[in-house]
């Protein structure tokens, strides 16, 4: 990156407490020429101290993307810490202002939330048309379903969101050209839910016990893979990928941020 | 209002230039005990001067709601002026941060945009259940369709947004328990588009020439009223109402704001 834009994009990762650090992000950084700054604070760090750390990342011109690892210790107000991240560096894209800009026509969000962005990217890379297609998103979480629906909407799909209060969801999915699911219910979407030729993106991951598997369990998606194979024209699944593409999207957001801050966009 | 919360809610209206002022808002103010402050600036006022006026409303403790009349003169940056309105007093609810909060589960917007709010209010007042129902919103404008869809979603409907790129929209509307339309295409939604017993809210308004009408034209909605009457169980239309309920919602937002600012919520 240094050659093309004259500076090194920087990703700051803030990790508080004893939970496992999702190593993949900053390990990948080195490979793509992004500098990573990892700060690890002890479990008993005060909220004030944590906010100071976020604030120093906000002010640091070498940092273009900030990632606060979740969950935070329970004595902290998660919203407060996350809202303290400067919107220009909030590469996760979950800030309400960013979500509002994503929802509005004619406005541009600072960042696209990584997992929905990865899904759309996968559809594009596989030359799957989105414009004018019926798309169904199963699940309406703030971190995936809702932003995924907004993104599909921006791509001119006709979008329906299915959720826990939806009656007869299979009647709706059966009309969809594209189904994106992220609820974490093993094998929920059966073959009979799918229109022949539809494209499925399965982001849901859960584990089920399996005595024959190496560790006594195995990962499964929301889609009943065996049945869907017979009906769908393509199935894109997160199971087994270990979130590599999402991690790429986060690094790509860091690069976008660096370019924007240094007027390369 | 003075008796119940000990102060008078204030609505400031900023009107720049020669376009017609939508009088109904501040005329209604007097009836419901809201104080109105109307500032009229000349067409050739500078952007800077206009921003100063917005800023003085932001700082004024007697003002709880701010309304910038649109359109502004063309030499001004509309986004810039609207974004200058303090989010706590932006009763129209169109600020991207407010829209983001509206889209997110577990978050609360400062204000509900008035026309979508009026629609939901009308459904509630007519005891029409929304939860678990199939709802279709026709049109995806920032000012109506998009926030209406988000509001229906918050009420646990299963929502589909139909727009100009949607193929065979009638196949989708025909499945809907609730249809809300706001596109401004006269008589677009025909009887055959409607499921028997569905509830229709028609917010679209356009005018068509009619030699027999008093002024040579008449107002019509998006719904072909004559045909819809035969199929739908209820039709709520804006035509002829002169936006009275929307105006009420704006005043209700001003009151909400005053209560919030003075800790009555």
Automatic annotation (TrEMBL), chains A, B:
Pathway: One-carbon metabolism; tetrahydrofolate interconversion. InterPro entries: Aminoacid_DH-like_N_sf (IPR046346), NAD(P)-bd_dom_sf (IPR036291), THF_DH/CycHdrlase (IPR000672), THF_DH/CycHdrlase_cat_dom (IPR020630), THF_DH/CycHdrlase_NAD-bd_dom (IPR020631). Residues 113-260 form the Tetrahydrofolate dehydrogenase/cyclohydrolase NAD(P)-binding domain. One of its GO terms (molecular function) is methylenetetrahydrofolate dehydrogenase (NADP+) activity. It comes from the Eukaryota. GO terms for cellular component: cytosol. Belongs to the tetrahydrofolate dehydrogenase/cyclohydrolase family. Homodimer. Catalyzes the oxidation of 5,10-methylenetetrahydrofolate to 5,10-methenyltetrahydrofolate and then the hydrolysis of 5,10-methenyltetrahydrofolate to 10-formyltetrahydrofolate. This is Bifunctional protein FolD 4, chloroplastic-like. It comes from Raphanus sativus. The lineage of its organism: Eukaryota, Viridiplantae, Streptophyta, Embryophyta, Tracheophyta. The gene is LOC130498741.
């Amino acid at each position: 990156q240094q050659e093309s834009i004259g500076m090194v994009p920087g990703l700051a990762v803030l990790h508080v407490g004893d939970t496992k650090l999702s190593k993949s992000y900053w390990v990948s950084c080195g490979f793509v020429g992004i500098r990573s700054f990892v700060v690890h604070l002890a479990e008993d760090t005060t909220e004030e101290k944590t906010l100071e750390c976020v604030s120093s990342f906000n002010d640091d011109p070498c940092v273009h993307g900030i990632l606060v690892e979740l969950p935070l210790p329970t004595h902290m107000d998660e919203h407060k810490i996350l809202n303290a991240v400067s919107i220009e560096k909030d590469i996760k894209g979950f800030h309400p202002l960013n979500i509002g800009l994503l929802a509005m026509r004619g406005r541009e969000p600072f960042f696209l939330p990584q997992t929905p962005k990865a899904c759309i990217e996968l559809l594009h890379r596989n030359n799957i048309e989105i414009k004018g297609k019926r798309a169904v998103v199963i699940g309406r979480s703030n971190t995936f379903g809702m932003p995924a629906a907004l993104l599909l909407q921006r791509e001119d799909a006709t979008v329906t969101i299915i959720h826990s209060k939806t009656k007869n969801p299979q009647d709706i999915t059966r009309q969809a050209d594209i189904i994106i699911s992220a609820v974490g219910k093993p094998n929920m979407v059966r073959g009979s839910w799918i229109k022949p030729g539809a494209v499925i993106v399965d982001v849901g991951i859960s584990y089920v016990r399996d005595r024959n598997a190496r560790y006594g369990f195995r990962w499964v998606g929301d889609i009943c893979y065996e049945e869907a194979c017979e009906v769908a024209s393509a199935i894109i699944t997160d199971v087994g990928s270990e979130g590599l593409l999402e991690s790429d999207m986060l690094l790509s957001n860091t690069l976008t941020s660096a370019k924007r801050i240094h007027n390369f966009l």
